[in-house]
Request: fold
Amino acid sequence: MNFLFNLSFRYKIPLWGSLLIVTATLAVSATLIAQSYDDLEKDLLGSSAGLGRTLARTLFSAMLQDEVWQAFQIIRAPLHGEAGDNPIRPEMILALDRNLQVFASSHPRAVPMLAELRSLGTDQRRLAERIAAHPEADAPILDLSGAQRIYVAIPIADEGARLGTLVIVHSKDVFLMRFGNVAWRSAGIGLLVLAVLLPINWYWGQHTAVPLVELAHSAHDVAHGKLRGPPRGTYAYQDELGQLFENFGLMVRSLREKAELEQEMIRSERLAAVGRLSAGLAHEINNPLGGMLVALDNFKHRAGNDERTLKTVAMIERGLAQIRDTVSAMMIEAKVKSRDFMPHDVEDVQLLLSGEAHKRSIVLRVEHNIEQPVALPATLVRQVLMNLLLNGLQAADPSGTVTCRLHFDKGRLTIDTENAGRSIPPEVLGHLFEPFATGNEAGHGLGLWVTYQIVSQLGGQIGAESADGITRFHVELPAGESA
Reply:
C-alpha cells in the first residue's frame, strides 16, 4: 500500500482521480439500476393489482354461482393478443378456491381445474404455503427465490365474504429481459461518462502534477548546490501554485546572486593575497636581475664584434628583461614601460619554444602579419605568447599541432591559439584564470593567471573555450601610440 502513496504526483493525482471517477460512476450506475428494478417492480405490482381487483370483483359472482366456464372466460380475456416483451402482461391467471384448488385456469392444459395447488410442483407448493400464511394480504408480490415466475395474489371477496384467491403469474424471463435492457443502458451511460471524464482527469492531473514534479526536482538541485529554478513557462497561471513558482524563482535568483558575490569576494581575497606575495617576490627577484642585465651590457662592450655572440647576448638580454617585466606584471598596480612589440619578438618566442615542441614531437605553427612595430609593451606581449603557447604544448596530444595566429588591424592586436587534446572540464574552465587553478597535473596554475593580469593591465580581453577535444584561447589587446 505504501507503494501507491510513494508514487510520483505525475501518476498519483491522475490515478486517484480516476479511482474516484470510476467509483462515483459505478455507484451512480448501480443506484440507477436498482432504482430501475424498483420502478419495474412497482409498475408490475400496480398493473397486476389493478387488473386483479377488477377480475376478482367479476369472478366473485361466477364463483358464487359455480360458473366455471364464465370464470375461465373472465381470466382468459386479458391474455388475448400479442404479448411481445411487455412484462406487465401476465403469462397465466389462476382462480383458486378457499382450499387452494384450481377453480379456473387460463391455461387448463398446464394447470387443470380442481387440481391441488400444492400438487402441481415445488414452486406451487411454496406459493400455496405463502397464500395460506397470509390469506388476507392484498396483492403482495410473491418473488420466490429460485423460481422462474413472479406471483401476485389478490383475494376474491366481497363485503367480507372470501371465496378464494386470484393468482396472476408473470414470467421472470420477460421481466428480467426488460430489466437487462435498462441495466445495459445505464451501464452504457456510465461507460460514456468514464470515456469523457477519465481523459479530462488525466490531462488535468498531468497539468497539475508535472509543474509540481519540476518544482521538486529544482528544490532537490538547490539543496545539492545547483541553483536552478523550474524551466520558464512550466506553470503560466497566477493562482497559488503560480505564486509558489514565482517566489521559488525569486529565491533561486537571490541565492545565485549571493553565491556569485561570495565567489567574487573569495576570488578578490585570493588575488589580494597572491598580489601581496607576488609584490614581495618581485622586489627580491628584480635586484639580481638588474645586476645580470648590467653584466650583460658590460659583456657586450667587451666581447668584440662577433655577430653570433652579440645576437645570443641580445636574446639573453631580452629574455632577462622579459623576466623582470613579468615579475613587475605580477604586481597588479605596476606600470611597466617597455619598447614596442616587434616582428622579431614573434621569432624569438618561436625559437625559445621550438626545443619544447621538438621534445614532445609537436608541430608548432605561428602565423602573423606584423611587419612594423606595434605600440604595446614587447616584454608583456612576449610573456602572453609564451604562456599561451606553453599551455598549448603541455595540453596537446603527442605528435599533435599547436597553432598560433597574431593579427594586427585597426589598432588592435588579436592572438588566437588552438591545440587538440583533452578538453578542459567546465568546472575548471570557469576558474581557469584564477591563481593555482589548472587542469594540467604538471602545471602550477600561475601562467594563465599572470597572462590574465597582463591582458587586464593592457586594457585587453582574454577568453577560452574547450569542446570536442579542441581548446582555444582568444586575446584582444588595444594598441597605443608608438614610442
